[in-house]
Amino acid sequence: MDLTAAVDVIRAPLGEILPRLSAALSETIAHRAVAELSGNCPHSPFKAHGDPPGDPGTAITTAEMAAIAPVARAEGTWQGRAWMAGAEVPVLAVHSDATARGALLVLVTTEETPVPAGALAAARALWDLVTAHRDRMAAEAVPGTLAQSRAAAAARATAIAELVDAHGAALSALLGVLRGRDLDDRTARARAVDLAVSALAELRARTDRDQALAEEPAGDAFARLAASLRPELRGLSVRLDLGPPGTEEGADRLLAADVANTARAVVRAVVHAMLDEQGPGRDGAPLPVRRVHIGWKVGEGELRATVRDDGPGVLRRTALDARRVGERVAALGGRLDVDAVPEWGTTVTATVPLGPPQPAREDPLDVLGARELEVLEQLARGRRNRQIAQELHISESTVKFHVANILEKLGVTSRGEAAALAHTWGAGGS
Asked: What GO molecular functions are on record for this protein (predicted)?
């Protein structure tokens, strides 16, 4: 590891620092995944990169990182076996004291052999450099960095708010079953137990998904919403009609995590506000909500979520404000429309912008680090892994690591496609 690698790491955009750090360390420390827990990071305190161990779909969690933190903090670096992504694997933990809060870096190594002292010292020095660099970015953040940090914080806050809503909704559903007068005690207890078990399983699954989820198709996001609402309405005399987005409504359109989480949280809050709605009908008797319709439609630049009921039509925006519905929509630059017609029901529409499409990058090779460009140049010359390793004086396993990163960053599936891009953009060598 040399100063060139260090410069390549700290010059990277926020989202690329961890992958480039992983690539730099791979030359001396073979690993399959890397994760960090950095309280001073202006973008996100927890990030992971690579191929985590465990069952497919599992991900490294902050709880697993926190379990290693005390021993790593005490010793500076620590090597041993620990649980990562639900599997016990060999790891190397590196702690940095470059800032008051400290920062933890964990590498899931591919070998049980202890890492040499020289490589440990170099890894800790590079991690100290990255930590200090991020601390300076947080203290002297430019507008772009602040905006990215606020967006990440908003996404985390929305996910947390959705979990809070889910807890509240589960408790409300339990109370609704237990208070129901049309059920005997034995039936009510059985339904309450079934509802509690289902809600607990869903909350745990939702927590795991939200820790790893970055974006998801609109159709899948709606399906998650529907699956969470059905058990909550069990035991209530309310019909749930669903209008999921079809192909024409943008079912395959990918939604960012903050948009999907906000849309789900808003719809859930609106539904429960409608169920709490009280008002008389024409004969003066209470007119309860018997039917709720939910529909999503994804256009070119926005997601429109509509919730409509057949209740008394007395729902007001103040009731939604108490559940922070308008605040959540406004946080993403959206708008909320409430149309309540007495004795006919209420329609609430939340429109959330998806943001302008990202401009195409002029040079697709800009995402690659210095060493990755060297490996790509060798690929473009038709050389195999062993030849590349000999030419660049690195191991074959490191070459494989770089090749995998190159394919992922360039969005291609083969060495040939990567080589073609290299020739197109002038990295093919002479």
From this structure: DNA binding
